[in-house]
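Appendix B.2, paired examples.
Example (i):
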Amino acid sequence: MALLRLLLEHDAACAHTLVGESFLEAGDLTTARAYLERATALQPHWARPWPALAELHLKTGDREQALDSARAALRCASGLRARLAAAKLVHRAGGEAPPRAQMIAAHIARSYWPAAALALAFAVFLVHPWLLRRLRGALRRAGAQEKAADSAS
């Protein structure tokens, strides 16, 4: 209980979410709803309470509210695992979410683009001398063909 008081003093939204999730697991949906709604009111852009609130609405049969909460979870989720779980909740509530492959590709692009750019620059640097030799050879051949064409005329 002391830990919960400490959490409540320093991070009220986290404390309300933890208590709400506990009541949700215990089956006390009315109390869980009060705590989870308070958590979303305190920090509406924090993703953690939204999936629990969506689950609660699904248990009570309120699909519209469940869909709104699931969409909020998807909108607020920052990590790939949280986004995939939120998308699954959106589908369970009867809504449309981005395809799984699209979310994974976006995550990879967002997470690894600096490494990909560096790898591309490194590959160009490694291939650079080879490209120059090929270009010089092509220019010499073009010049030789031009001389041959001039001498034939």
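Example (ii):
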Amino acid sequence: MCLISYFHSLSCKDIKIIDLGSACFENNTMYTYIQSRYYRAPEVLLGMDYKCAIDIWSLGCIAVELYLGIPIFPGLNAYDQLRRIIEMVGMPDDEMIQEGKYSSKFFNSADGKWTFKTKDQFEKVIQLLLCWLMNRYSRITRRLYQASSNIIL
């Protein structure tokens, strides 16, 4: 019997999903990396505070994958993940976008209207971020080298 047929033959009580790797209390969310990419909720992608609703999102993604046999949102990265979600579900509410810490990576704002960045626009943001990180890293490395040269063994 093929795996998909097997899953179709199961009843709800036969399926248990257990993954407590990033478990936390709702009022004490302490992880920045949470949820596997294909099952990551929009609020996590946007950098919003999250509640247990993200688990319902993941469960829905898993249920669809069990039914279809393929992931519903197989994003290659966070941008691609959000693009796939927007194509199928639509744009997040303005409030969600405004609240998200990472929204500026994914969205442009003009005249109070949000638009999803093109792939080129997103990649430019990432390139600027990487340049900033490389510059910061090289300054820290230089300081460490200068400090280490004062150490006498």
